[in-house]
Structure formats: C-alpha cells, structure tokens
Amino acid sequence: MRKLLGGIIGGGENSFIGYAHRAAATLDGEAEIVAGVLSSDPERGRARGAALGLDPSRVYPDCESMIRGEKALPEGRRVDFVIIAVPNAPHHELSMAFLKEGFHVFSDKPMAVSLAQALSIRAEAKRRGLLYALTHGYTGYPMVKQARHLVREGELGRLLRVVVEYTQGWLAPLVENPEAFTTWHLNPDVSGPSCTMMDVGVHAINLVNTVTGLVPEQICADLGSAIPGNPLDDNGSVLIRFDGGVRGLLHASQVSSGEGNALRLRVYGTRGGLFWDQENPDVLECMNPDGTSTIYRKGSACLCEDARGAARLPGGHPEGLVRAFANIYQGGFKAIRGERDRPGWDYPCSFQGTVTLAFVEAVLKSSASKSWTDVARVE
To answer: Of the given ranges (23-27, 152-156, 223-227, 339-343), which has the lowest mean pLDDT?
Structure first.
C-alpha cells in the first residue's frame, strides 16, 4: 500500500497551525507532504520548501500553478489531498478550486466566512465524491470520544443543559495598548465578519455538536469588543436553544487576561453530568446525582472502543494536540482509501462545518438586532 501524497497551502515559517497539520498528517507514516504553496511571497516560499526538504519543482508560487503542475503528473505521483492552512478569507476559493480538479481537501477551520460559501463547498465535495474534512482538532482527543459515547449510551439520561466556554488572553494587551502588535484576526478582509466567534466560537459549538449531536435552533447573542477601534468582536456570550428542548450557553473571549487555551465543556442530563477541559485533555469527569464523581482517564480499560482506538500511548503518557489532529487525518485517510473506519478515527465533515457557519451568522445577526434569532437549518 503506497503512501498518500499531500500538498499544503500556507503554513509557512513560524506558523503554529502549519506545523500541526504537517506533523499530524505524517505522524503514522500513511502520508507524505510533497508539494505546496508555502508563502504569498514566492521567494520565501522556495526557502521554506527547501527547509522542509521538498522538491523545488513542487514548491509553487500560487495555487493555480500548483493545480497545473500536479495535474500534469501521473496518478501515484501527483498529490492525493491538499491541506488548507491559511487565514479564513480564502478558504472557500481554495477549497472549491482543488475540489473541482479532483483533489481531496483537509481544511483548517472555519470552513468559509459565510454559510453560503460553506454550502457551496459541501455541495461540490458531494457532487465530486471527494473527501472534505475540517480540522477541528480538539474532537480527536480520546476523552472527547468517551464523552460522546456516554451521551450516546444514555449514561447522562435525557439532556437538559450544555455549557461551553473557550477563553484565551492573547489579545488582552491590545485593550490598553492597541499598537502593541498587529494580527490578521482583527482584519475583516482576512478574518471575515467575526474575530473571536469565527476563531474559537466555532470550535466551541463544534465540540458541543460532536459530543451531544445537538444542533442550535435559536440563539440570543451579545458580542463585544474591548479593544479600542477593533471592528470585530473579541468576546461574546450566546444563549442557545438546541433541538429537543435542550438549553445552552456559549462564552468565547480572546481578551480574558491570563487564560491560555481554555476550551471547557459541561453537559448535564437527568442522570448526571460531565466535564472536560482541553488543557487537561486526558481526564473526563462524570458527576453523579449523589455528589460523587467518576473519573475516566485516557488508557483505562473501561473506556469505549473509540476512546481506546484514539490513544497511541498507554495511560499516564500525555499525547497532546498533534496526535488529536492525527486522529482526524487518519479518519480522512481511511475514507480516501475506502477502508472500514478504525475505532477512534473519525473526522469533522462538511455538515459540521456548515452547522458552525449557520451558528456564527445567526450570532452576528442576533447581536446586531439585540433579539432572539433563528439558526438556519442545515440538511
């Protein structure tokens, strides 16, 4: 069985997300990155390609050149899939360009910067029979899969309430000194119509959907900007009415001083609740009605098949985000090969991507109108 061949768009020097994608895609030896567009500056792109050991003839100055160059190669030498690891705005254009030419796509979140764009990507992938995977990396953690299993098996009873937060503090210095640094996240032409909700809010609502299967139907949102002159949101809270009558709360902020990457999920039902913290990802706490708690840890024999399958190392050995990402890639690779899914290796798909964009659009509309707003239904 030959390795799958991949190309990457973006992820140049000093790119955290580029490293995460490259490392995750190649971690298990099933794929190799052989081509890419590594910078909007062709000279810097060539230098980055050399540093990564890529064939200079397959380090392209732009995506059009990459498509032409790879299509000219015979099957087995051209790339099978493309990783999109650039800021938000070009996600739609790039995804559509590569899907139309027959390449599978792994895209960083968000899927696009509007629901209409996301729906067109979903339709194109389905029409072509190609894989489209969205790298909401946190869903690859073993204990997220255990949480999903407990909900599906009814261990929490009938779901009543969901609370999810994603708080960071990296933008907080700009509140008192707006000139401290610059970032594309605050540029609407690059980030899209939202900063924080489009950046971390999408992770939060996707985590809820992954674990519970719930889809938001109505929301009431309050977005704000603590950074002077910031045209986009840097914090916000959303009351949510999910399908089935479940109520929820989502809080997202990137101006929460002192916070690192605090993605935390609480799910409550008639028979108990659960709590998972991304900064302590190998532990899942289940709260019982009598006040006691059951603690699940990665590597335990009592875990479900998916949670066990998503772990590469024994219990007590932390694995981290790259391996969670790798689980998503492995799920995608199995789908590309047409192989039966291995337990623990699944991936966020275009449906989940469109659900998150429907949510973000409703959040923006609700906050602007100061009213409860319906979330567009995604089929």
So the answer is: 339-343
**Token pair for 48:** 């980055």
Domain boundary among 83, 109, 137: 137
Q: How far apart are CA 236 and CA 158, in angstroms?
A: 28
Collect all residues with Cβ–Cβ distance below 8 Å to 159 and sequence separation of at least 6: 151, 212, 214, 244, 246, 267, 268, 269
CATH of the domain at 236: 3.30.360.10
Q: Is the pTM of this model over 0.90?
A: yes
pLDDT in tens, 79-114: 999 999 999 999 999 999 999 999 999 999 999 999
SS3 234: coil
Confidence of residue 157 (pLDDT cuts 50, 70, 90): very high
Q: How far apart are CA 29 and CA 254, in angstroms?
A: 36
Angle at 127 between CA 126 and CA 133, to 5 degrees: 30
User: Residue 354 has what pLDDT?
Assistant: 98
Q: How confident is the model at residue 274 (pLDDT cuts 50, 70, 90)?
A: very high
Looking at the structure, tell me whether residues 256 and 125 fall in a common domain: no
Provide the pLDDT for residue 379: 87
Q: What is the mean pLDDT of residues 30-45?
A: 95
Which among 168, 166, 167, 144 is positioned nearest to 274, based on CA atoms? 144
CATH code of 14's domain: 3.40.50.720
The HSE-up count of residue 360 (CA atoms within 13 Å, CB side) is 33
64 and 159: one domain? Answer: no
Write down the residue that tokens 């929460």 correspond to: 256
What is the phi-psi region of residue 232: left when phi exceeds 0, alpha when psi lies from -120 to 50, beta otherwise? beta
Q: Does 169 share its domain with 144?
A: yes
Give the whole-angstrom CA distance, residue 7 versus residue 103. 10
Distance from the first to the final alpha carbon of the chain:
36
CB 347 within 8 A of CB 328: yes
CA nearest neighbour of 146 among 156, 133, 137 = 156
